[in-house]
Every structure is written in structure tokens, then in C-alpha cells.
Write a structure and sequence with these properties.
By secondary structure, the protein is α/β, with parallel strands linked by helices. The chain has 15 helices and 12 strands. The model has no long low-confidence stretch (mean pLDDT about 95).
């Protein structure tokens, strides 16, 4: 495995940092997760849906070692320093200023341990008027304008998963791997930083540019593309929906002639160019909906695929559970008698079967404390 031999120490909670380190663990890194004595990562307590374990914790903490420390304790702080002296990567996503107050600021650590790579994941960054504010996924979605371009027209909405947390974690993971590669060349670590707000803002790059250079901000359009038509969801006779996408004039002609059985629509003066289709979206969508509603979703899917039109089902989560393209993996739970089926990591080696991949075990709180302290801080024994 690519990161075998790499040791990661992580003061982490919730989603962003745990996702970054889960990916490192998947690649073979040894990840030592530091949790608060008594309560641990608060994501352990979000729910108890997975055989008594939290869904978030089960997803994000496979293959890690858990140590429970009191970082205000002189002995435990010294033990942490012992681990850092041999670690390759340090990750933290504590509240604003908490790492510095514990003597674990990145500038301090990279001076003390020149080969160490540090990754600080914050809410809004380390400076600016909002830097010290608490930051959670939905708050940052709203602050970055992401809610304004999501949901049905006129009703800003939360993206349905913790997209900002997830993106921040993926950004952190990619940057850490790059820094490890660079260290192979230079022999030196570095201090890296990302934030939830920076990650959300980068996702808003296209709306930002549109607004910056035209003065007009895109609006939320529900299950429709704001600047391409037809590109959205349409009803079917069985009460289900199908989503279709037209990207060029060849596809538009095939849609009209093949899937819809209305070849004359392709040259209709209202729809014969991309900008006209957008300007007349309401009429166009109404005509298409009148046709798709005559067929079940499966029938309409067959017609669209026969005309080589990009399309997809508007599925439920129940549909995802049995989706033929879904890859899953098994994760052992703290109770050795139990395991959970989770969505498999989205990158895999050629030849990996779509189901049954075994990932690392989920640790119980403080399960590895004694062993890790004996290894890195034997004087505490």
C-alpha cells in the first residue's frame, strides 16, 4: 500500500479531518486518532443507526487507532510530543485557536519537527472578521452562497449532504499527499491550511465568475440546469421522474426525432438554438413533460438511451441501496461479532471486486491508548 510506513497523528472531530485521515488510512498510513477522554469525537454520538454505532463515525474512522487523552495534562501533552517526534503528518480541526493554546500550533510544530507536515482545517481561515466564529457545514454553505443556488426556485436550500465538510476533507487529503511527495525531494515538511469556507467558495467558482463579470448571479432552479435547456427532470406516467441532458445540437436533434417522436421541434423557431431554448425554457419543458408523462420511467429511459441521449433516474436512497453500479465494502465494528456494509472508497485498483472489500476496523474510544503510550511514551507506564 502506497502510504505504508507513514504515521499520522490527528486531533480530529466531526467530518472534514476524519475524512482526510480515513483516506490516508485506506492507503496504508498508520492513523492515530486523539479523542477527548470520556466523550471522544462528538461524531460518535450523532446517532446509533449502525448496530449501535454512529453512521458518521462508522463511515469516517475505519482503520484508525483511538487514544483518549487529556491534553491539559502535562503527562499526556508530553506523550503527544513523543508521538509527534516520530510522526510524518499532524492534522487538526479543533476550534479557532485551540491548537495554539495547547502548544500544538503548526508554526511551533514545524520548527520543532522540521520533517513534520501539518494540516490545519478551520472554519473561515486564520484571519479576517469571521475567523473566530464557530463554523459548521450548513452555516458555511449559507455564508458562501451555496444555498442560494440550491433548491427549487425562490427557496434557498441546504445541499442534502455535508458537502462543505466533505470537500474540505478531500482538499486536505490531496494537499497532504502532495506534501509527502515533496518531502521526498526536499527532506522538509511544511505547514498546510485549508478551511470550510475556502472549500465552499471554490465550489462556487462558476457562479462567482458569472456574477463578477456580468453582474447577474445565477438563481436556484431545482432539478434543472441554470444555463442549459433542456437539462432537468421530467415526469413519467408511473409517478417517477427521469432526468435528461442536452449538451449540443446533434443531441437536440436526436432527442426530438428519436426519443420524443417530434422531429419538427428541432427546427421550431423558439427552440432551434441553445440560447432560445433557455429563454423559452418554460414552454419547452412543458412540451417535453407532456410527452414523457405518456411513458413509464423504464419506457422513457429505453427511448432516451435508444436515441443516445444522456439520462438518469431521479432515485431515492432506497434505490441507491440496490443500484447496480454501487460498490460496497465491509467494515468491522468495535464489537468483534459485527460488521457494517458501507459505500466503498471511490477509487479502486483494477481488478478489485465491486463488493466484499474489507476495510480497517472501527476503534472503540481509547482502545489503543495503553499500547500507543507504551510505544511512544514508555515513562508514563
Amino acid at each position: 500500500m502506497a502510504l505504508r510506513g507513514i504515521t499520522v497523528l490527528s486531533l480530529e472531530q466531526a467530518v472534514a479531518a476524519p475524512l482526510a485521515t480515513a483516506r490516508l488510512a485506506d492507503a496504508g498510513a498508520r492513523v492515530i486518532k486523539v479523542e477527548r477522554q470520556g466523550t471522544g469525537d462528538f461524531a460518535r454520538h450523532y446517532d446509533s443507526a449502525v448496530h449501535g454505532e454512529s453512521t458518521y463515525f462508522t463511515w469516517l474512522n475505519r482503520g484508525k487507532e483511538s487514544i483518549a487523552l487529556d491534553l491539559k495534562s502535562t503527562a499526556h501533552a508530553a506523550a503527544l510530543r513523543g508521538i509527534l517526534a516520530k510522526a510524518d503528518v499532524f492534522v487538526q480541526n479543533l476550534g479557532f485557536g485551540a491548537a495554539d493554546r495547547l502548544g500544538l500550533g503548526s508554526e511551533t510544530l514545524t520548527t520543532e519537527f522540521p520533517r513534520l507536515i501539518t494540516m490545519d482545517i478551520s472554519g473561515y481561515g486564520e484571519d479576517g472578521p469571521k475567523a473566530a466564529l464557530p463554523a459548521y457545514d450548513l452555516l458555511v454553505q449559507a455564508e458562501a452562497g451555496l444555498c442560494e443556488v440550491s433548491g427549487p426556485p425562490g427557496a434557498p436550500a441546504r445541499v442534502g449532504v455535508s458537502l462543505v465538510d466533505i470537500t474540505a476533507g478531500l482538499n486536505a487529503h490531496g494537499a497532504i499527499v502532495q506534501a509527502l511527495f515533496e518531502r521526498e525531494r526536499t527532506g522538509r515538511g511544511q505547514s498546510l491550511k485549508t478551511s470550510l469556507f475556502a472549500s465552499a467558495s471554490e465550489m462556487m467558482a462558476v457562479p462567482y465568475l458569472q456574477c463578477q463579470y456580468t453582474g447577474a448571479a445565477p438563481v436556484n432552479t431545482g432539478l434543472a440546469h441554470p444555463s442549459i435547456a433542456p437539462y432537468g427532470a421530467f415526469p413519467c406516467s408511473d409517478g417517477k421522474q427521469i432526468l435528461l441532458s442536452i449538451q449540443n445540437e446533434r443531441e437536440w436533434e436526436r432527442l426530438c426525432a428519436g426519443a420524443l417522436g417530434r422531429p419538427e421541434m428541432a427546427t421550431d423557431a423558439r427552440y432551434c438554438k441553445p440560447d432560445l431554448r433557455v429563454a423559452n425554457r418554460q414552454e419547452l419543458d412543458g412540451e417535453i413533460a407532456g410527452i414523457t408523462a405518456q411513458y413509464t420511467r423504464d419506457e422513457m429511459m429505453e427511448r432516451l438511451q435508444g436515441a443516445k441521449i444522456a439520462c438518469g433516474a431521479v432515485n431515492s436512497v432506497h434505490d441507491l441501496l440496490v443500484h447496480p453500479q454501487l460498490r460496497t465494502a465491509q467494515v468491522p465494528l468495535p464489537d468483534p461479532r459485527l460488521s457494517a456494509t458501507i459505500v466503498a472508497p471511490p477509487v479502486w485498483a483494477a481488478g478489485t471486486p465491486p463488493t466484499g472489500t474489507q476495510l480497517g476496523r472501527i476503534p472503540s474510544l481509547g482502545e489503543h491508548t495503553d499500547a500507543v503510550l507504551a510505544e511512544f511514551a514508555p515513562t508514563l507506564e
